[in-house]
Write a structure and sequence with these properties.
With about 350 residues, this protein is α/β, with parallel strands linked by helices. Helix content is about 40%, strand content about 15%. It has 14 helices and eleven strands. The strands form two sheets. An eight-stranded parallel β-sheet has the order 1-9-8-6-5-4-3-2. The chain is globular.
């Protein structure tokens, strides 16, 4: 399905913006150069830090790319729950010989400043996570030539995205690694969610704008499946996590296929918002008690996660990963895009030749 978005890149492959230093300019450039759409993650960066990465990426490729921005979060009223969780984490701080972070370090992630930079220095695509921007914000980006995408985890959220005037919606299935992009964070979201193929169908019946499918996609055959279901492109995160261009910690990369980390779960343990990660000691011990308080818990645990990484202890790190993590391939990002495109072509050929679709089986 051709659209203004998919016309920007020849392969229907979008590299997910993974915050925390994973989606670095080298990764985004490699994906874009190979015909996909590379993405930078502005989350947890300053506006200037984002701008510097954009300049660096532009020095690596002339191809289109995107930048992802986190939406500001509403005030969290139950400070007592955060204090209680901090008390529970005191032992972790002592173990890693560090201090807990300040939970009141900021709620808006520099949203206004980042938007100003993106309006003054337009990029081809901007996506948003954790909510829907105002129509004025989306219209302003459109006037400077930027296409906009917004994550949705339900058909109702997708409708809100369309009504706000976004150019496309990212349908994020519950299989996806990292944070669920729910527009309103409530406890009922814990452990729940809609599978990607079902979500695509629901969203396609609800909105008219193009759909980018995200959630557990690791192979070209899966890309073919979501395209057949009505998506215009597929967004892959975990698949690119293990590439040499990825900025992920080497322990994180190794954990994707390490038998010690056999499964993933949605957890609030590290950030206070539901996010899918490999089950490790920290997740098991603290996940059941973490409050629904983002970004307070994120700020609180930040020093712990850094200290665990420095100590080489994957059991204390946030090992974000989608459900397909065991299928990760340690390939250069550009080569991975080429292989995914080849697998997609093979899957499409097989589908067209299937008697079920009316093709010639001979």
């Amino acid at each position: 399905m051709s659209s203004a978005l998919t016309d920007l890149f020849p392969q229907p492959i979008v590299q997910a913006p993974m915050a925390g230093g994973v989606s670095v300019p080298q990764l985004a450039a490699a994906v874009s150069e190979a015909g996909g759409l590379g993405f930078l993650a502005a989350g947890y960066k300053t506006a200037d830090g984002m701008y510097q990465e954009i300049k660096q990426l532009r020095g690596l490729t002339n191809r289109p790319f995107g930048v992802n921005v986190f939406m500001p979060q509403p005030e969290y009223a139950e400070s007592g729950a955060v204090e209680l969780y901090a008390n529970q984490l005191a032992g972790e701080a002592a173990w890693y010989e560090t201090e807990l972070g300040d939970p009141d370090s900021g709620r808006d992630d520099g949203y206004d400043a980042k938007l100003a930079v993106l309006l003054d220095n337009p990029v081809p695509v901007v996506s948003f996570h954790f909510g829907v921007p105002t129509r004025d914000a989306l219209d302003s980006l459109r006037r400077v030539g930027t296409l906009t995408l917004v994550t949705a985890t339900t058909a109702e959220e997708a409708l809100a995205v369309q009504r706000a005037g976004a150019d496309a919606v990212i349908a994020q299935g519950v299989e996806a690694g990292g944070h669920q992009g729910t527009h309103r964070d409530i406890k009922e979201n814990d452990g729940s969610g809609t599978g990607l193929l079902s979500l695509i169908a629901q969203i396609r019946e609800t909105v008219d704008i193009p759909v980018v499918a995200a959630g557990g996609i690791m192979r070209g055959s899966q890309i073919a499946a979501v395209l057949a279901a009505g998506a215009s492109a597929a967004q892959l995160g975990t698949a690119f996590l293990a590439t040499p261009e990825s900025g992920a910690n080497v322990l994180h990369k190794q954990a994707l296929t390490n038998p010690l980390f056999a499964r993933t779960e949605l957890t609030r343990a590290f950030s206070g918002r539901p996010a899918r990660g490999l089950v490790n000691r920290f997740l098991r011990e603290h996940g059941p008690y973490a409050p629904a308080a983002y970004p307070e818990v994120h700020h609180l645990t930040s020093p712990l996660r850094k200290a665990a990484a420095k100590a080489g202890d994957a059991q204390g790190m946030a090992l974000w990963a989608g459900q397909g993590h065991r299928m990760a391939r340690e390939l250069p990002a550009g080569q991975l895009v080429e292989i995914l495109a080849s697998e997609l072509a093979e899957a499409r050929t097989a589908l067209s030749a299937s008697p079920v679709t009316g093709g010639d089986p001979r």
